[in-house]
Specification:
alpha+beta; 40% helix
Length: 185
């Protein structure tokens, strides 16, 4: 399978500057290396501790979602560790905020699961998100999720704006869609 370009990231807001970008195959060690590079950029910029913590947390969560759920994989689909999967992460700076967008291909089943969860999540208030987050921490976990099912709730809780997402058609691959998720810190 050939790698898919993630050139269909959401359109950048006016005045946005690319702060960090990586596209390619992700593994846990690549996420860690990218997070270290991002942390150094933030330290050089003297970003606040709160912004740094939230930005790195969102960046790592989005990277892990690519590693766990991207349909473009170099490792077996049922692998539970040492997964290597394709996607892209872009961090843009807009004034004093950062916008993080991830993009990766998903299967039809992945599309349906994500759309079902996100369509409800984006309509919730912050208090509802926090309540669902607390309930998810006490629950047994989402059987469809490799991370216990709280990743999207964590992203929504820590985002300063509602999560934005979309699914784009992939030419020549009708059984897959390109998933794009945007978080604002």
């Amino acid at each position: 399978m050939n790698a898919l370009p993630t050139d269909n990231f959401a359109l950048s807001p006016v005045g946005a500057r690319v702060f960090f970008f990586y596209e390619g195959y992700f593994s846990q060690s690549i996420i860690e290396a990218c997070a270290d590079a991002l942390r150094m950029r933030l330290e050089a910029k003297t970003a606040s501790t709160k912004t740094t913590r939230r930005l790195l947390g969102a960046f790592i969560e989005l990277g892990q979602n690519i590693v766990h759920y991207s349909a473009e994989s170099l490792t077996p689909e049922d692998a539970l560790d040492a997964e290597i999967r394709f996607g892209g992460l872009r961090v843009e700076e807009v004034g004093d905020r950062f916008i993080i967008t991830c993009s990766n291909p998903v299967t039809a089943a992945g599309y349906e699961r994500l759309d079902r969860k996100l369509s409800v999540l984006v309509t919730m208030s912050l208090e509802e998100i926090k309540q669902h987050y607390r309930e998810a921490l006490r629950a047994e976990g989402d059987v469809e999720s490799k991370g216990g099912g709280i990743g999207l709730l964590t992203l929504a809780r820590d985002s300063s704006e509602p999560l934005l997402y979309r699914f784009d058609e992939i030419p020549g691959r009708p059984s897959h869609k390109m998933f794009n998720l945007t978080v604002t810190v």
